Amino acid sequence: MRVERSAPAGMAWLLIAGLAVFMLVMAGCGSSSDSSSSDELTEVGAGEGQLNLIAWAGYVEPQWTKPFEQQTGCKVNAKVAGTSDEMVQLMRSGQYDGVSASGNATARLFEGGDVAPVNVDLIPNYETVFDDLKDQPYNTFDDKPYGIPHGRGANLLMWNKNDVTPAPDSWDVMLDPEKAAAYKGKISAYDDPIYIADAGMYLKFHQPDLGIEDPYELNDEQFNAAVDLLKQQRQNVGEYWSDAAKQIASFTNENSTVGTTWQYQYFALTGDNQPMSASPASQGFLPKEGATGWSDTWMISNVAEHPNCMYKWMDWIVSPKANAQVAEYFGEAPAQSKACDFTTDADFCDKYHAADEEFWKRVYYWKTPVADCGDGNSDCKDYNDWVQAWTTVKG
Amino acid sequence: MQVGTLLAGPVGWLVIGYLGSLAVLLIASFWEVDPLSGEVVRNLSLTNFQTLIDEPVYRTIALRTIVIAGLVTVTDVLLALPIAFYMAKVASRRGKALLVVAVLLPLWSSYLVKVYSWRTILSENGPLNWLLDPLGLHGPGFGNVAVWLVMSYLWLPYMILPIYAGLERIPNSLISASEDLGARPGHTFRRVIMPLVFPAIVAGSIFTFSLTMGDYITPRLVSNNQFIGNVVFNNITNDLPLASAFAVVPILVMIGYLLVARRLGAFEHI
């Protein structure tokens, strides 16, 4: 009896001792997570048989992964992510070989030591990639390329033709408090802190006295104006989306009638005969303010288990035929200049302005906001501020 | 000693896997992040808690989460009591078995399937609006009301089962005795049944309250409003320490809830 009675007390001590040991261990491993910067590959060997990728919806599809698997023996396992935050989080798990990172993830992945530099000499198809995609601040760090450009595009303004007339040519249907009120509860906005840049871009056009140059480099005053605009928009937003399938369902069910979207959802909806329309090719797919957009980069993890397969993939995805397929499937401009000869629509590259460097100056590629935004003052809002502000916008 | 050996496995799991993860959470809530990479810097400070207190939005979100968890709990008690009473005291043996199966049946299908079906039900072109349209009415659409409806549906079985078990334990003779002494049904319910079944209600409410507080998928699918869980989820990549600090809030609320529940006698028959 006595032994049994004292057991609970003993157990409690055991628990406390265990916790104490655990906390000591945790405190002790403080500095062990520093990642060593791994060197780039010097030659591509035989494939390892597997390849684990993180990708945007529509980037890894059987049409171009099957032939890749047959040629290289690398079986492709893709995990689709809905936001850049999710991509960064997944990459930090260390379980993936590579990621199709947008500009608002690349710098964070580099700073976090999650990715390795790419030896572009081992990627034969890199040479004919469009020049204005190479050596960009979002894919090159410390003068070393940290990835292979995949393709680029602009975020679309999409609307339901039956409900939104006349066809809008400006983001004001979503962002002007008075005009947006006409679609109260039916507006679909992207659920990510980077969406603040859409407001920044809108204000750059409509309130030039704020002096916004780059929608990702906002000082206190500019940032507050953008956040206030989004707080007003909040009243009219029906749904914030971060999952392409969820947005498609929303437009199909008429829960949303106007919103910001990707070509992927637009094609899925029009392919399903839904009455959707988007800024037409004649306007260059852009509302008059321009648009935020992306220029994506395949990056390799610095703890990649299958680096050879990843190098083979990075070469494959910018090979003319595969790059044409993925660009047409997703609806974005290819990164490979020779891809234009392989598109099923002969005018595809013209329509998507693939080689039109002037056009891309009106597209603001996603990038990571940092405090030091070029003028040496460190007075810009950094990404932490953006994340915090996004929480307050959604309320 | 032999008992000790037998217990070593489960207790070890409890300490390392279960309490250990809580300990990590608590420590992490005092850390900071590097603004550029979002990497965790292991400096102890109170900045995260300061942010949670200074920014009114976090209070709004915490309050919203707690209020909806409370509403869901009350709704489930009101729905579960008559159902459980019918199951325990009125239905035939066969009927009872059928009802138990009916209550458990929703638990056999995936949580996500159920939430997505509610998304369809509540959507603009959904069945609810189709039903209400001839009456000139319109469904609640997506929002707090939708979250409340869906959560009440999701966690109802967790309320019915404990109340049913509690009612089963009340001897029928007590109810007959109360009637023989001249108490009307309402009086019997208030003075005889309620005091006996109350601990079971509190036990069920622990489930409904904590499950609602911890959920972040339902609010994401049927509303635009953030719950504590959504903020935790959104900050995990970028600001793990802030996410941890906010995750401490429901822990504190639940500790308070459990202390009150213990005073009310919820754990006396376990």
Can you tell me about this structure?
The complex is a heterodimer of chains A (395) and B (270). In chain A, the strands form three sheets. In chain A, strands 1, 2, 3, 4, 7, 13, 14 and 15 form an eight-stranded mixed beta sheet that branches. Chain A has a five-stranded mixed beta sheet with strand order 10-9-11-8-12, with helices on one face. Chain A folds into two domains: 50-150 and 296-350, Periplasmic binding protein-like II (D-Maltodextrin-Binding Protein, domain 2, 3-Layer(aba) Sandwich), CATH 3.40.190.10; 154-293 and 369-394, D-Maltodextrin-Binding Protein, domain 2. Chain A has helices at residues 2-28, 62-72, 84-92, 103-111, 172-175, 177-181, 196-206, 220-234, 244-252, 263-271, 307-317, 320-330, 348-351, 357-360, 383-394, and strands at 50-55, 75-80, 98-101, 115-116, 140-141, 144-145, 148-154, 156-160, 187-190, 237-241, 258-261, 276-278, 291-301, 333-334, 363-365. The radius of gyration of chain A is 24 Å and the shape is globular. Chain A has 395 residues and is an alpha/beta fold. With 270 residues, chain B is mainly α. Chain B is 75% helix and 1% strand. Chain B has helices at residues 2-28, 47-54, 56-90, 93-104, 111-122, 127-132, 144-168, 172-180, 185-214, 217-222, 228-235, 240-263; strands at 32-33, 40-41. A two-stranded antiparallel sheet of chain B has the order 1-2. Chain B is globular, with a radius of gyration of 23 Å. Chains A and B meet through helix 1, helix 3, helix 4, strand 10 and helix 9 of A and helix 1, helix 3 and helix 11 of B.
